[in-house]
Design goal:
Blueprint lengths: L7 H11 L7 E4 L9 H16 L3 E6 L9 H13 L6 E4 L4 H13 L3 E4 L3 H8 L16 H12 L9 E4 L14 E5 L13 E3 L1 H12 L3 E5 L6 H10 L7 E5 L3 E2 L6 H9 L14 H7 L3 H11 L7 E2 L1 H12 L5 E2 L1 E2 L2 E6 L8 E6 L9 E6 L2 E5 L19 E4 L4 E9 L5 E9 L16 E2 L2 E2 L4 E8 L26 E8 L11 E4 L3 E5 L9 E7 L8
The structure holds adenosine-5'-triphosphate and magnesium ion (2 copies).
The site of adenosine-5'-triphosphate has 16 residues, from helix 2, strand 8 and helix 9.
Main location: cytoplasm
Protein name: Glutamine--tRNA ligase
EC number: 6.1.1.18
């Protein structure tokens, strides 16, 4: 099966193979290990791996680790885990930091060709000299240093003679270019910092705009697919490949970023949410990270289906987060067992049911997938129902339990509410009901009808469980800063998590972390791998059952 239906990147690849420009397709997924992957990265992964696979080509996983200040081996490991979990296998694994020596040589080559110089201006001065969209830039007073002097200074930069920020190496292109990216971009900076891979070997590090094209060329990447904000950097990308005399000439192609409503999609912001304690880690189920979504209960299939549905184009509008939910419902519908769980328990005593008696009722595991078979659920004199399924003074058209009303207990009997027990504060703490043995489910009883069916769990055998219900983490529709000077942190939903203590059916006792279920009427849930213990099951709600969203 094709991974990627026709799109403009695929068309370029077809043309390049037909014209003989390339014999095979090589792509790469190049994360910087400065955070955990998010759903936006999933799009890049799916495009890069999917397209190469459609042509029997290759995809590299390359850690773009050229900034020691922000990178960490923890991130490297999580990225590998997430790519695999999403269902992709890289043909080769590379670290950009393994090319530092090669990159240094290419920088020296630029100096020797008179195309790079060491600049003593400060970062602020460089910014000032760069000009604006309407104003041309100004040459640095150090721009005309001799090749010999530049070579010597660059070696000294490498040798650790200077402090951070004291000097940089800049490409010598054109300070008057209408494209600001070409106004002598900085290509090396000094950073006395320990690198997760190269340790203290280097104290100068290449900048992204210089390093990335070299990495692609060194690896023989044919199509370097990146997000649209790099469009203006393409001339610089091509300049670097050409002037550094790289043998292989990769082509940069941009596509529109994936954005999803009610969340933020930037590692910097996600890190802030973690560091400032808004969430309990990168894998908090409210995070749009792959690890957070996995912990919440999303499946790789649902993420892949969602991303494919968003297509490949140059535009980057925000996709409705409900579309993501649609795909996980679709994926889980036939796969996972259905069961009953009570998230806000209210005790019900069935006064005419014999004391001490317990019966096992038959229930389908998944009525939409009969192959999953049947389960047994105990029933006895005492059960729990949802507090929300009872009202003392119901409005019109309330068909659940209220004094004198009869409802069906799913898979069991009709019960009728006879008496309300309240505590000293007047809160309803227990209901006394009667049942009708004639009405047992599956017996074909047609004597009378009830309008409401509610779920329940037998009290003596019920397994205590914690339910974690989630609301969007970000309330603003796009989650971006607005013009009132607010930041995205002002849009964090203070009520994005509700924790409730309830009960589940006894046959759920053996559930393992990451097991998924549909709880009747409540939606799809995942057994939380972090908080679940041998004594307590913790369920994350993945998604409720219904949505108005249509593809
Ligand atoms: P962020 O802005 O979240 O920090 P990034 O682009 O800096 O993301 P990288 O580690 O450089 O993160 O990303 C690896 C690859 O994933 C890049 O090719 C990048 O373009 C792509 N990518 C990142 N975010 C998205 C997104 N929202 N949609 C599609 N692709 C993305
Ligand atoms: Mg990046
Ligand atoms: Mg970034």
């Amino acid at each position: 099966m094709e991974n990627q239906t026709s799109n403009f990147i695929k068309d370029i690849m077809i043309k390049d193979l037909e014209s003989g420009k390339h014999e095979t397709i090589v792509t790469r997924f190049p994360p910087e290990p400065n955070g955990y992957l998010h759903i936006g990265h999933a799009k890049s992964i799916i495009i890069n791996f999917g397209l190469a696979d459609d042509f029997n080509g290759k995809t590299h996983l390359r850690f773009d680790d050229t900034n020691p200040l922000k990178e960490d081996i923890e991130y490297v490991n999580s990225i590998k885990e997430d790519v695999k979990w999403l269902g992709f296998e890289w043909d080769d694994l590379f670290f950009a930091s393994n090319y530092f020596e090669e990159m240094f040589k290419r920088a020296v080559l630029l100096i020797k060709k008179g195309l790079a110089y060491v600049d003593d201006l400060s970062a602020d001065e460089i910014r000032e000299y760069r000009g604006t969209l309407t104003e041309p830039g100004k040459d640095s007073p150090y721009r005309d240093r001799s090749i010999e002097e530049n070579l010597e200074l660059f070696e000294k930069m490498r040798g650790g003679v200077y402090d951070n920020g004291q000097k940089v190496l800049r490409a010598k292109i054109d300070m008057k270019s209408p494209n600001i990216n070409l106004r002598d971009p900085v290509i090396y900076r000094i950073a006395h910092a320990t690198h997760h891979n190269t340790g203290d070997k280097w104290c100068i590090y290449p900048m992204y705009a210089f390093a990335h094209p070299l990495e692609d060329a060194i690896e023989g990447v044919t199509h370097s697919i990146c997000t649209i904000e790099f469009e203006d950097q393409r001339p610089l990308y091509n300049w670097v490949v050409e002037q550094c005399e790289m043998e292989s000439t990769p082509q940069q192609i941009e596509f529109g970023r994936l954005n999803v409503t009610n969340t933020v999609m930037s590692k910097r912001k996600l890190k802030q949410l973690v560091d400032e304690g808004f969430v309990d880690g990168w894998d908090d189920p409210r995070m749009p990270t792959i690890s957070g979504m996995r912990r919440k209960g999303f499946t790789p299939e649902s993420i892949r289906d969602f991303v494919r549905e968003t297509g490949v184009s140059k535009g980057s509008g925000a996709v409705d987060s409900q579309m993501l939910e649609h795909f996980v419902r679709e994926d889980l519908k036939l796969k996972v067992p259905r069961t009953m769980g009570i998230i806000k328990p209210l005790k019900v005593v069935i006064t005419n049911y014999p004391e001490g008696q317990i019966e096992l009722l038959d229930a389908e595991i998944n009525p939409e997938n009969p192959d999953m078979g049947m389960r047994k659920i105990p029933f006895s004199r005492e059960i729990y129902i949802e507090q929300d399924d009872f009202m003392e003074n119901p409005p019109n058209k309330y068909f659940r339990l209220f004094p004198g009303n009869e409802v069906r207990l799913k898979h069991a009997y009709f019960i009728k509410c006879e008496e309300i027990i309240k505590d000293a504060k007047g809160e309803v703490v227990e209901l006394h009901c009667t049942y009708d043995p004639e009405t047992k489910s599956g017996t074909g009883f047609t004597g009378r009808k009830v309008k409401g069916t509610i779920h329940w769990v037998e009290a003596a055998h019920a397994v205590p469980a914690e339910f974690r219900l989630y609301e969007p983490l970000i309330l603003d529709k796009t989650g971006e800063e607005n013009d009132e000077g607010k930041t995205f942190l002002d849009h964090v939903n203070p009520q994005s998590l509700e924790v409730l203590q309830g009960f589940v059916e006894p046959n759920m006792k053996e559930s393992r972390p990451q097991d998924k279920f549909q709880f009747f009427r409540h939606g799809y849930f995942n057994v939380d791998p972090k908080h679940t213990t041998v004594d307590k099951l913790v369920f994350n709600r993945i998604v409720s059952l219904k949505s108005s969203f249509k593809i």
